[in-house]
Amino acid sequence: MGPYRLASPEFTHSLAEAVTAFNHRTSGPLPEARTRSPNIDTLQRRTSLPLLPRITPAPPLNGDVLHNVLQYFTTARSLCRATLVARAWTIPAQTFLYKYVCFSGWSGPAERSRDRCFARTIRSCPHLRPIVRYLSIDMDSDDDKGQLDWLHLLPEDGLSRFRYLWHPKQTFDPSVLEAPAVRAVTHLIVHGPQSAAILRACLSLPRLETLEVSLDDCDEAADWDVGAGLAPHLRRFVLRVYFCRCPVAIALFTAFAPQLVSFNLHALFHVLVPYHEWEQALMAHGTHLQHLILSGDTSWQNIGSPFLDGFVERAPSLEHIRCMQGTLTGAFFGRLPSSLKTFEYATNEGVSGAAEEMILSFLPGLRSRQYYGSVQTIRIIVPAGSPYREHRELEEACDEVGIRFEHVQDELYAPAQYLSAEAVIRSCFKSDFVRFDHSHISSHKSASRVLTNPPPPPPPPPLPPPLPPS
Fold it and tell me: Where is this region: Disordered (predicted)?
């Protein structure tokens, strides 16, 4: 606002009274020169009022301040309006508006109209192309293929993460993975009917470091010979196995395991997935992992094979592990490596009384040299929509020994049989490697947290016509 302050209400009232008195004294026929409104300086001199503070223009808003302000704009509608506030706001607001883009063929007429508007904008506005950082493309028709020519206009090194969903199989477009921007991504998420050719095309991206694959419709009789040489830089692998046995899943893990630091397996173990084979594969090829994530089903408790007891004893580099019911016993906590920082327990209904007692009995040792552990976080994971069950005793025990306790509800961890097609689509930019970035956190205690997904935002309006940069 500058060095001057706004006039007080008392001063404004006094000025109004002075103007009224001045007009009353000068009523009647006036010469032509006096028919105009009095000059404010003359008025102030005649009424003996203090000079009106002159308000200087506010300095331009610093870029870092504006960036922080725009972070709180949670809807595309707000960002659209922000682009039209001033030219100085246009580019920063567009940066947030175009950062996350979902080009969807599954949506209704309004969303398709928005997609067409976005495609026209990318074709005609080169300065907006580098802004797109996270892109998702959903295709359910061959007609969508002709609308993706703009994808080849995005610059190389522009995209940070790319998600590609297609259904049915014939809608897969190999040219999508040949676009320069897609070829340069390090994080690829793919959902759709798989074939060996499609999988090889996904693995052929030269800079691929993180791959998330859903295997829910595969030809199990096909030749799935996929060598690790296709993706020499792959370090993080998420494998979601739904409604097929798919022997390629274990073959993929076995092929890439030596170079992985993180592996996530989300599967229907009790229905189709050969869990005994997974036990053998993890014990033989996964003991060097730093992160091991198991989720999707709790029926492992009926298998009677708590193999993680022996796994953690042979995993000296393990920092983060997610267990499921039936995969561990009390001996598990006595064998934890000193490198372990995060322990997660995935369940459909919350921790059972027996499991909670087991954790409580070993909790004091998790922060002492008795069990060589240095656990900093204990996280309970249940499907989204599950009723919250308090674990008061566990929370208080964690608080006493300085361990952070979290209770997470997230549909990303829901059992596969509960996932609808819409739920899979909504996982557009979710990833186990960017967990809890945008979650709402409610504190129960100083070391206790409850994390849930934020509600889905309303459908964004059509993108506004871009303004030229100032």
Answer: 444-470
